[in-house]
């Protein structure tokens, strides 16, 4: 059953040099309990999609399209209606655990406050829930940690608390916005394993936003690739890794270091991300694409069979 | 992924992690330690406490009330009105033959009351408006800051005189008008702090969890700027006492027979040339002790709380 359906989402930011088209015509569906990855480099608009779903976009943003959650368009909801959905139905895991916790509040208050707000629970009931969720994210000695302040935890533990905050009201959809970027690799693996556990136990749908293909490979069933605010490719993760159908995806995969290959040289994608002022008129990846033909600079490709490229798969290098 | 999971659930992992956790003093415990290290500030706390006790219980020790005239010394104040333990005028009498000790107690009451009631209330009002302006920005911000700019351009002594001409010269009116004159204290600094803090990710996190704007301001931002408010209050209290004394000195403050430090100093200064120096000396000494103590307490608080000034 479809839980979230994003239709022709366009996000633009008014700025001094005209409008920045951060997200252009992005559409996707998420089923209940699905694990979906949104992959793209910095500036590809992936975080903005998450913020748009939560209704947290910056003030100078203009949004078009539809974000249907359980059949309701989130973009039409008022602030207070949205507040009722937040945390209870949809929650966001922030990227930087160092700055997304209030330094002057104890962990117990930060976690408990959410339950009190959404479920009208009492202080002691809220404390109980905070304790449960801290156990769920495997914070050892949680009982004695309730009264601690964020600075008394290490980075990995803080990220667990951030995850706990998102989980505490048992939402049906979790948006994880680069949940492991600020952590070192060993802790990354723990956090991803934790998310995997929780996802399985609670049947939550997870939209994982990341630039790290390694994280995606181990976690998500389906992957979408974003470039310059447009969808480039969408496919089941396995087939996307086996047989990427878009030159950009191919470039990305070639840029991932592999232990099995002797070839030490990594191939980078030449050039830099596109300037996104003004509406796109051609494939945004064309200037950096090795397979680009003259047509590519004129025609705006649309998604067909899970890929947005005018050239057939067989002809790509 | 399975390896990582096995490790995650192991006892050993729990052990390592709990060892890794940092235990440290809380912010306020740290601040208390730094404040106690500031000797003058600690000494000043005792001085101020002594003053407060004096103001609260002083009347119990006075032989005379603060409004009754001692006819025995009236007319011979210069020779017989000085400080004298035998007739109960510990600090002597004022120019009308009233007991100066009782009057200084009463003056301390008024001045400290004005300082400790009007000061914090004024800061609270300014901080609230500053927080709203900083958080919501836009029109509201422009309106509040514009109003602030106009307000601080009003000369406050004239405002005082006009206000008291309309509403009388009681203690309540005095506190009210002091709040109205001083509410601007702390507005800009709180506004700046809030503008800086509202872009931090934890505010987004609170919004993501469905908190209303007011819950975010009062539950999440307020603890973060509490130190600014505390420091500002410690600065505003002596300022407010000073302002009250100034207007009382000029003769528009509190209504006779009630009195304040400023009013007593004013009376003492008028009679200074007649050789009755005690009439100026005692109230001035209390005023100075209070001001200096409050100043050092403020200084100690600043050292203890300002995160930029950690030693």
TrEMBL record, chain A:
Principal location listed in the UniProt entry: membrane
Membrane-protein topology: Peripheral membrane protein
Listed GO MF terms: ATP binding; ATP hydrolysis activity
Record keywords, A-Z: ATP-binding, Cell membrane, Membrane, Nucleotide-binding, Transport
A biological process term (GO) from this entry: transmembrane transport
InterPro entries linked: AAA+_ATPase, ABC_Ni/Peptide_Import, ABC_transporter-like_ATP-bd, ABC_transporter-like_CS, Oligopep_ABC_C, P-loop_NTPase
Domain of life: Bacteria
Pfam families documented for this protein: ABC_tran, oligo_HPY
CDD domains per UniProt: ABC_NikE_OppD_transporters
UniProt-annotated location(s): Cell inner membrane
PROSITE patterns hit by this protein: ABC_TRANSPORTER_1, ABC_TRANSPORTER_2
Domain ABC transporter: 6-253
GO annotation, cellular component aspect: plasma membrane
Family label: Belongs to the ABC transporter superfamily.
Name of this chain's protein: Oligopeptide transport system ATP-binding protein
Organism whose genome encodes this protein: Antarctobacter heliothermus
From TrEMBL, chain B:
Regions that span the bilayer: 40-62, 112-136, 143-165, 171-190, 221-241, 280-298
Cellular component, GO, one term: plasma membrane
Gene Ontology biological process terms from the UniProt entry: peptide transport; protein transport; transmembrane transport
Location (main, coarse): membrane
ABC transmembrane type-1 domain: residues covered: 108-298
Keywords: Cell inner membrane, Cell membrane, Membrane, Peptide transport, Protein transport, Transmembrane, Transmembrane helix, Transport
Membrane association type: Multi-pass membrane protein
Localization (cell): Cell inner membrane; Cell membrane
InterPro entries listed in its UniProt record: BP-dependent_transpt_permease, MetI-like, MetI-like_sf, OppC_N
Family: Belongs to the binding-protein-dependent transport system permease family. OppBC subfamily.
Name of the protein in its database record: Oligopeptide transport system permease protein OppC
